[in-house]
Amino acid sequence: MSKPDYQATNLPLWDFLTILASEGVDFLLSGEEDKVPLSSFDYEKTKICLFFSANWCRPCQSFTPKLVQLYNVLRTMGKELEIVFISLDHDEDGFNAHFETMPWLTVPFDVKLHKKLRERFHVVRFPSLVPLNLDGQSVEEDLIGLIEDFGEDAFPFTKKRREELKAIDDSMRQGGKIDQLLAHPGRDYVVASDGGKVLVSKLIGKTVGLYFGAHWCPPCRAFTAQLVEAYNQLLSSRGDCFEVVLVSSDRDQKEFDVNISSMPWLALPFEDRTRQDLCRIFNIKAIPALVLIGPDGKPISTNGKKIITLYGAKAFPFTQSSIEEIEESLRKEGDSLPRQIQDIKHQHVLKLDMAKAYVCNYCERQGKFWAFSCEACDYDLHPTCVEEAS
C-alpha cells in the first residue's frame, strides 16, 4: 500500500515565466483553445502548480481524475489555485487526448518546452505536481503524496500545512474518542451486513477492532475466518463487549457488499473517505491488519492480527498485561508436560512443540499452542489425547 516516491523541486515562479519568455511564449491555452495571457494572473494571490504528466503513463491516468476533483472542489470553495499542464506526450494526438480530461491550462504543445521545464524543475517521475514559489514560504514538494493522503485539506500545499495535518492525525489517533475516528458531521453511523445503520455512539466504552481488509486478498479471507471465530467466542462468553469495524480496501461497491456479507460485524460505508483517512492515521501499509482500540478510545495495539492469530479470544481484552498472563500460563503448562512421549497410537517418539495452529490426528479437532509432534512425519496430538505406552 506504499506510494511511489515522487520527487521534484519547487522553484520561484519567475523561473517558469523566464523559460516561457525565452521562447517568446506570453500565453497559456485553456480547454477551449483560448489564449490566456500570462499577464492576466494575480501572482500575489494565486497558487500556481505545474502538472507534469502524459497520456501514455498509467499512474498519470490514475491520478489525473483525483487532481481534477481536487481542483474543482477548491475552485468551488473560492480558493485561488491554477494548474498548468506540462505535457510529456510523444505526439500531439496524445497531448490532446490527455488535455481534454483537464479543466485547467496548458503550455502549448508545439513550443516544445517540456524537456527544458522538466530539467529545470528536476522532475524524475510522472506524474509530478510542482508548486511555484512566490513568497519565499517553504512549499511541500511531494504534492502527489500529500493530495493522495489529505485531498483538498492539503491546500495550500505547504510544509506548515502538512505539519498541521499530521498534528490532527496524531490527536485523532491518541485522543481517546472512537466517535471522532469513525464518524464526521455528515455521518454518525456505521453499517451492518444487512444494510442496517448502527450509531457510532453505541461503540463508546467497547473494545473495538478496526479491521483493514479486502475480499480480493486471500490472506484477508484466511484471517477473517480466525477473527470470526474469536469474535463469536467473545460474543457468547462475554456478551457485547467487543466489536469489529471493517475498513475496506475493496475495489468497488459490489466487492465490498460480498465482503461484508460474510462478516458478523460492522463496516464503514464504502463511499466514505474515512476509510482512507484511517489507513493514513494508523500507517497501514499492508492488509490484513487489525488495530485494537480500548474502551477508553485509545489504541491498545496496531498488531491485532498477530494477537488474534496467536491467541484468539483468549487474549481479550488484548492489553499487554493480558498477553503476558497468557504467555506465563502457557509457559507453566509447558513446564508441566514431558519433553517427549511414546504414544501407543504412533510408532515414532513425539516431542513437545509449540504450534500456532494444528489439527490433532487422533480427535481431529483444531489445536493451538502445545502439541506432541513427530519429527519424522506429519503427526500431532493434543496433550490431552496422549496415551503413553506402559
UniProtKB/TrEMBL annotation:
Keywords: NAD, Oxidoreductase, Repeat. Its EC number is 1.8.1.8. GO terms for molecular function: thioredoxin-disulfide reductase (NADPH) activity. It catalyses: [protein]-dithiol + NADP(+) = [protein]-disulfide + NADPH + H(+); [protein]-dithiol + NAD(+) = [protein]-disulfide + NADH + H(+). InterPro entries: C1-like_sf, DC1, Nucleoredoxin-like, Thioredoxin-like_fold, Thioredoxin-like_sf, Thioredoxin_domain, TryX_NRX_thioredoxin_dom. Residues 18-174, 180-332 form the Thioredoxin domain. Gene3D superfamilies: Glutaredoxin. SUPFAM superfamilies: Cysteine-rich domain, Thioredoxin-like. It comes from the Eukaryota. PANTHER family: NUCLEOREDOXIN 3-RELATED (PTHR13871:SF81), THIOREDOXIN (PTHR13871). Belongs to the nucleoredoxin family. This is protein-disulfide reductase. It comes from Gossypium davidsonii.
